[in-house]
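hey can u check if this looks right to u? its 763 residues, i copy pasted from the old doc so theres a chance i mangled smth
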Amino acid sequence: MKLHGRIWRGAALALLFLVLTSSVGFSQSDTQSDTQAELQAVPPGWRVETVDDGRIFGKLGQNSLAYGPGGVPHVAYGADHLYHAYRAGGNWVVELVDSSPQVGKQASIAVDSLGHVYITYYDELNQNLKYATNWKGWWEVVTLASAGDVGAKSFVFAIMGGGQQGPNVYVGYLNATTYKVMFMYSEEEMMGYWSDPEIASGSLNVSNFAMTMHGYQAYVSLASGGNIYYATSTNWSGVELVGEGQAITAIAVTDDGTPYIPISYDETYVPWGWITYLAYRENNNWVSPTQDTPYGLIFSLGDDIQPEALSIQADGNEVYVAIQLPGSNASYHNLYIAHGAKEIYLGDHYTVQVDAYGEIFPAVAVSPGTIDLKAGVVYLNGNLLEYQFLPSMTDIWSKSISPVDTSSSMGRCTVLRTDNNGRAHVLYSRSDTGALYYKFSTPTGLSGRTTVTDEGEMARCGLYDRPSMDLLSNGAAVASFVNSAGELIYGKYTCPPIGRCGFVNQIIDTGMRYFESSTAMAIGNGDYPFILYHKFDGVHSHLRMAYQRSNNYPTWNKVDVDNSKNTYGPIAMEPDLEGNMHATFVDIPDHPHYSKYTLANGTWSTPTILDSTNYTMHPVRVAVNPKSNTPQVAFANNLDQLIVTAYGCLGQICLWNANTVDAPPDDAGTLGAPSIIIDSNGRRLLTYDYFSPQQGINGLKFMKIEGAVKTSQIIETTPGLVDSTSIALRPGDVPVIAYHLPALGQIKVAWGPVSVFLPLIRR
């Protein structure tokens, strides 16, 4: 059954192919090469250590790495004998556990909460499954199963019991004679005795399997007859079909009880060859990539690149997937890791090893609950057993900065948005031609340029003229700008059944003039677009809003915000949870203002002056607190102070409360171009240009305000000012910042900070 192959051919892979090669709009193609458009590798966090050297190694098991208390790694391995290695005091200690000949291949290891070790492994000489443990304080070795050719594939899991009787140990193994998966256990009240083996694969004849535990329940994935199946210990005979796949399999269960199975299969309908994706079980059904939800794809690297091994482990509600692929010749192998969850297609991918010699067969493991370690992987590289691990790193931006465009004459007017799947969407301009460009992130970097403006058209972009962009619920970008003819343009990124994806543009209004041509866009409830802009009436410019009551309805309604205000410069608008619009703007006396559009009655409130003493000539930005559904406004005043003013009510009294959150300590210092967003926990995140000769600081600054606590850092130092900063959030409240460096003519994106940073695939 090829459940998704034909669907991917119709949509998802076609889209992926387009964004990975070129993204040319209907408006105007731009064939200039973007040699630096791919994302740079983010912090080099993976550290490599040699566990053992010079012994005879065989295939590692998928669970040959496990972590004990305190994040101590333990590895089980061998081929001539069985060995156990663990790290102590920064050094690896190796123990000979079983000196019998030809034992130790395909070992699986578990470590309980007290640090006791449990290992199942293959006795190749006798074709038996063996078991070793040190829970009593010394190593005990027994033959656990001998009926048929058993143990070439096994998994062990252990939980220390509450008394002195012993642990709870669970083992799954493959009987290569009967093609059945067997399951047995020894619980603490059994005093070290084992249950009789029971069939865990129903009526299937199985060539390969994987097993994990969640609580006291066992889960297995089964490879049989070109398909992948799933079963649990609550009903071993209730086998479920997951999808068509290669006869290698792995399984993990996240904290919320969701099972995940990576599946590889040969996509014969498109030139992508082998595809590996992540299937997961939701509402008693298995979810795979479809035309409407093209997620789950881990990667596809070419026609003949068939995965050789898979390993997966859960970390909370996310997973790490290790994938072994062929290297440059038959003796070499490449090892990659993917990290994410349901949307792993948009998650993090990174290279662990390229062209390692000999058998790798990786085992990936995670160490939840430790502050200095996130994930690790072991693999074989010739006569070396190597261990790589990723320490947890927080609040690091400097190594995670990616150039969006380093071509000459890249202008300001950078706008950043992120969709629900964590993709970054960037709008920016080119100063010499006035062209407006759009890019978005993909699993391997950023897409090629899509030109938003029509051929020969210029988008007004300058100190006071700014375009805008937002995203529909399906992640499609929509943009607004004023062209050189003074026309307000609305464009929507569209992918037709035939042809290339691009922007379809529409004239919304006319009569705008230079220096008063900024727009602000927001998407309201129901995917209704709202555009705020300056409308010149022949005497002065005032604010007007155009909106649709349906995203597909051609008519635009227009309503004036305040005819009495002569406005100019960048404006901002954000919706709240009820679909009301909150807007900020500057009038001719340079005072920051705020106004609210109430959706229920279709009216704007009388604008409120946020600062009547000082003035600003920088963008005034607004954000809505998702916890209180109230607005907050950030702006830089003429005193080079960064002001954040929040709206709050005490009973019937509602006020704006302004606070100075940053300012250079010296008269020569400057501060400007702020951007603000509020995460799901109510934390205010700001980014802005900061210059202080006294402090020796010049660059892009980031600030997090959590309650009364402020923390800040310089993300990047620059030779000149930073312009057009724009901040957005990825899932999990992870901030992303886009910004313009006028002195370098560059647009950049800074990704971070999260508990770990993972580089993207490099091939």
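DSSP finds two helices and 59 strands in the chain.
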